[in-house]
Amino acid sequence: MKYLYHPDAFSPSNWAKSYWMDSASEIAPFPSLDKDDSCEIAIIGSGYSGMMAAYHLQQRHGVEVRVLEAAQPGWGASGRNGGFCCMGAAKLSYQQIIGRYGLDNAKAFFQIQKESVAFVGSFLEEHKIAADQTGHGEISLAHKSSVMEEFRREQSFLKSAFSHETYLLTPEQLMEQGLKSSFYGGLHNPVGFGLHPLKYARGLADELRQKNVTIYGDSPVVKWRRDGKKHILDTLKGSLKAKQVILATNGYTPEDLTEDIRGKLLPALSNILVTRPLHETEIKQQGWHSTTTVYDSRILLHYFRLLPDGRFLFGGRGGTDASPAARQAAEKHLRRDFEKMFPEWAAVEHTHFWQGFVCLTNDLIPYIGPLSQDGSAWAALAYHGNGVAMGSWAGQALADEIVGKNKSSALPSMLNRDFSRFPLPPLRLAYLKAAYLYYQLKDEWF
């Protein structure tokens, strides 16, 4: 089973017809691998994780690398996401993380997520990548009145466990900040910002090109084999031999790429629409003029933000069918949710709709660590829908880990734990469908 979903969703020729594609400057395509080549470390995937790993390995550690990309940089999640550079890379609550991995691990993970947001901001500034940064922090909105009490408990917990300040907001305070809605209040985390994800990805790719880091585009790995202590990655037209390999393909990882990854990942669909530019009168009518990143408190959450050019981005989780036919139903469903939550904009047409995959693990936390028993294959992936910051940080952290810089400080053990498979892996999608049905009922009725 190469993919759990319709294969067209993973075809390198299937570029998402997104607003990001239509608003990002074109860059020269990276040539494909059409020969036999070799390097010290091969990287599969040119998203944020793969490119950051390549940048740090070659520029900071002097390691010869090559990057293999099935399409072109930013084709996958790094060019399709909602542009939320924020915390939240695990689906476990911090209380659950403490119970499972201990307080020290939880504190380290929390701090890493804060640092990852700052890491992206600093990289954009240092390398002068214009990625349309907006807003300050992110706000979770209560979709039921009972959620406000949960927010109060969360605020108290974050302060006591991590010395992290958040801010409760009443509906009136939300309105004052340009976030008028029917929600019952919100919780503002000051860490985070919005950006244009494809401008970031392409800016990062251009930076690698300028630093003579080799990226092979249109070069999907069709076979991964071993020749003694060397890895050989066969593509459509060539092959790459390397001492070590980093897998950074996240939710776009083929099941049959290597036995070391089989059954360990679960892609989950996320859907996004973007409206035409809103007129000033329309913005005033809805009372929403803040560019802060926002999401609601549902388990199957919606996420949304006002873009710099006055368009509105609205996304949501919950799809389990990536077929072309199901795509139309997903678009209609997301449109209904948008009109219900923002009734003053019910007549505002959307110009773009697209889908992409987030990536889940069985234990609902990211994985950054060794993939093979001999320590020659590595992985950085599974950010559970919040990979802009964490995926970027993970790439450079794994680079440090591989060359030995992190051996004394080490990553938190929860991130490079034993990477387990899902129970009965062929039934993963059935698990997800059942879970989504339960979450829909819980979001609305419990």
- By CATH, the architecture is named 3-Layer(bba) Sandwich
In CATH's first tier, which class applies?
Alpha Beta
Radius of gyration: 21 Å
What level of helicity do the residues show? 25-40%
In whole angstroms, the N-to-C terminal distance is 37 Å
Portion in strands: 15-25%
Mean pLDDT: 95
SSE order in H/E notation?
HEHEHEHHEHEHEEHEEEEEHEEEHEEEHH
**Based on CA inertia axes, which overall geometry fits?**
globular
Low-pLDDT sequence parts: none
The named CATH superfamily: FAD/NAD(P)-binding domain
Model description:
The chain is of the alpha/beta class and 446 residues long. It has a single domain (7-137, 191-445), classed as FAD/NAD(P)-binding domain. The chain has helices spanning 19-23, 48-60, 77-80, 94-101, 103-126, 147-162, 171-176, 197-210, 280-286, 324-341, 387-403, 428-445, and strands spanning 36-44, 65-68, 84-85, 138-141, 167-169, 186-189, 193-194, 214-216, 223-227, 230-234, 239-247, 265-275, 293-296, 302-306, 312-317, 350-361, 367-370, 377-381. The strands form 3 sheets. Strands 1, 2, 8, 9, 10, 11, 17 and 18 form an 8-stranded mixed sheet that branches. An 8-stranded mixed sheet has the order 5-6-4-13-14-15-12-16, with helices on both faces. A two-stranded antiparallel sheet has the order 3-7. Helix 5 (103-126) crosses helix 11 (387-403). It is globular and about 65 Å long. The protein starts with 18 loop residues before the first helix and ends with a helix. This is FAD-binding oxidoreductase. InterPro entries: FAD-dep_OxRdtase, FAD/NAD-bd_sf. Residues 41-400 form the FAD dependent oxidoreductase domain. It holds the Pfam family DAO.
